[in-house]
Structure formats: C-alpha cells, structure tokens
TrEMBL record:
Active-site positions on this chain: K150 (proton acceptor), K246 (proton acceptor)
UniProt EC number: 5.1.1.-
Organism encoding this protein: Rhizobium loti
Residues that bind Mg(2+): D175, E201, D224
Binding note for cofactor: Binds 1 Mg(2+) ion per subunit.
Obligatory cofactor(s): Mg(2+)
GO function term, MF aspect, one: racemase and epimerase activity, acting on amino acids and derivatives
Protein name: Dipeptide epimerase
Cross-referenced NCBIfam families: racemase_DgcA (NF042940)
Pfam families, per database record: MR_MLE_C, MR_MLE_N
PANTHER family noted in UniProt: D-GALACTONATE DEHYDRATASE-RELATED (PTHR48080), ENOLASE SUPERFAMILY MEMBER DDB_G0284701 (PTHR48080:SF3)
Lineage, opening ranks: Bacteria, Pseudomonadati, Pseudomonadota, Alphaproteobacteria, Hyphomicrobiales
C-alpha cells in the first residue's frame, strides 16, 4: 500500500518579538510533513532558516520533490543519501521516525536507546536588545536556572554585565550568532569569564573562526553555525569545546544521533538546541538531548500559541513527548 503524504506551511505567533544579531521575527514559520501508512500517521516539523539560504517555498518544493520516493517507501538510511542536510530532510526524517513508532508499537525513545527518558532542564532565551531592556528580561526570568542570552552587537559587555547582575543565580549561555570579530573576541571572552558565563555559542562567523585555535578559552566555546553533520566534526577539534546539535541543521534525528555519538568520541561537550518552532519540532530533540550537557529546547515557551497536544513544560523542565504528539 502506497504511503499518503501531505506537506503544510504553518505559522505560529511569537509572544512579542524574537531578536538575534541577524534580525527580528514575530512568528514561527514552519513546514509540517505528514506520512500515512496502513491507517497510521507520522508527523515531522521543520523550520526553514534564512541563514542557510532556506525559504518556506524552497523547503516546501524540496519536500514535494521527494513525494514519489516517500510514497514508494524510502527509509531513513536511503533518505540520508537522497537529500542534503537541512530543514526539508529533517521534516521527512522525523515523520518517518514517528510513523515507524506508530506502525511497530515500539516508542521512538526505545528505538534510539533513550529508555525511560526523563524531564530535562532547558535554557530560556532572552532576545537581543539594549542592556537595560535585557536586564528587565533577565530579572523577569531570574528564577530560571539556565538562561540563554542573545548578543552580538557593539555593546555586548554592557549586556553581559546587565544580565548577570539581574539574574545572579542563573547559569548563563551567551549566543553571539557569529556577531563577534577577531578584534574583540579575546576581550569579550575574558569579560564573559569574569562574569561567570557558562558557555559561549558561535562567537565568530563559520569558516572565519581560525583564531579560536590560537587563543585561550576561559569560557567553553560551542559551535553552532559551524557544525551541521558528523563529517564536519574533525575540522572543529581544537577550535571548539562543544557542539550545538539542531535537527534542522543535521537534517533529522537519524543524522543527529550519529553526530552526537561522534562528537562524544572526539571529546566535545553536547548541546541540543532548536529553531523557534512548536512542540512537534522539539519532541524528537528532547529524546536526543537525554544526557546532554546543555539543553536549549524552549521554542514553544517563546510562542503565543503552541500545538495541541504539546510538550509539558513546568518552569524550565520539559518532559518527554507523549505519543499523541510524536514518537
């Protein structure tokens, strides 16, 4: 029996405005893939990302181009060879994982070895703004144990000082989104260390980060835009201390699992992150993140409206997905 496939573009409003060094957005634009077989349905969600030259139309077209092969029964291994890493492959791959779980009756958590998955402490993201406004965001969320702070401008030291003073009990991740330069990275790293920062994501542009091999790392540095698949990892040894694994970058859970395991072999710390999407996008990542050093799966917390049913968040704890949602 041939599979039935649907591809849908959806939009979910963000609570306020989400701003990083590359711009602002007021809604999460996602594409959802649904694959049906023998009365069971699997779903996957992806978030096209402009930084990687992805658009809603382009990702939609890439998924549609695979329609015949999906209908004919392509499996996840063949999918890796048939499509490049990125959002389009992620939506299909995660839908196939979900479908396999529904057809077999075996939870995806068991299939990937995440037996008895636990609730995880996720970071909560503060948007880039002027220092005073960011201090207000931090103060409002100072009870959260882990904050992720978007920086990457000309006034980052003031932002770091403002946020750490406003949330003195929180561990803090800084995410520069490639916004620092060779001229300020050493000074900014030292300042971050003085203020007890736990981790810094992608301070320099991907491919222009060679200086990281030659300078001190007083705060661990995590690759984000510089790492997509496991094949990228060996070139990052000595440059970065950790890697941020996102399903939309790796092109699905299948490659993300390989990336995570290889990163551990090479001695990298593991962070599992996300784009701004719904609980459907976060669900497989919660399973991937079991045992990770840092978890940043707060996408639904930034939305004004999530899917139903969604993931259960209690403060900064996110529980594994119910099978009605995914897996």
């Amino acid at each position: 029996m041939a599979r039935v496939i649907s591809v849908e573009a959806e939009r979910f409003p963000i609570a306020g405005t989400f701003t990083i060094s590359r711009g602002s957005k007021t809604e999460a634009e996602v594409i959802t893939v649904t694959i049906g077989e023998n009365g069971h349905v699997g779903r996957g969600e992806c978030v096209p990302y402009k930084r990687y030259s992805e658009t809603m139309d382009g990702v939609h077209a890439a998924i549609e181009a695979m329609r015949e092969r999906i209908a004919s029964g392509i499996d996840r291994t063949a999918l890796l060879a048939a499509m490049p890493a990125g959002a389009a492959r992620n939506a299909i791959d995660c839908a196939l994982w979900d479908l396999e779980a529904k057809l077999s009756g075996r939870p995806a958590a068991d299939a990937i070895g995440a037996v008895s998955p636990k609730a995880l402490e996720t970071a909560y993201t503060l948007s880039l703004d002027e220092p005073e406004a960011m201090a207000g965001q931090a103060r409002a969320n100072a009870s959260r144990p882990l904050l992720k702070v978007k920086i990457g401008g000309d006034n980052d030291m003031a932002r770091i000082r403002a946020v750490t003073q406003a949330a003195p009990q929180s561990r803090i991740i800084l995410d520069a989104n490639e916004g620092w330069t060779d001229d300020n990275v050493v000074e900014n790293l030292a300042f971050a260390a003085e203020h007890g920062i736990a981790l810094i994501e992608q301070p320099l542009p991907a491919g222009r980060d060679g200086i990281l091999r030659a300078i001190a790392h007083p705060v661990p540095i995590c690759a984000d835009e510089s790492v997509h698949e496991a094949k990228n990892l060996e070139a990052l040894v000595g440059l970065y201390d950790a890697v941020n694994i996102k399903l939309d970058k790796s092109g699905g859970l299948t490659e993300a699992l390989t990336l995570r395991d290889r990163a551990r072999e090479l001695g990298f710390g593991i962070m599992v992150g996300c784009m701004v999407g719904t609980s459907l996008a976060m669900a497989p990542a919660v399973l991937l993140a079991q045992g990770a050093d840092f978890v940043d799966l707060d996408g639904p917390l930034l939305l004004a409206r999530d899917r139903e049913p969604g993931l259960v968040y209690q403060g900064s704890l996110v529980s594994p997905p119910d099978r009605a949602l995914w897996g």
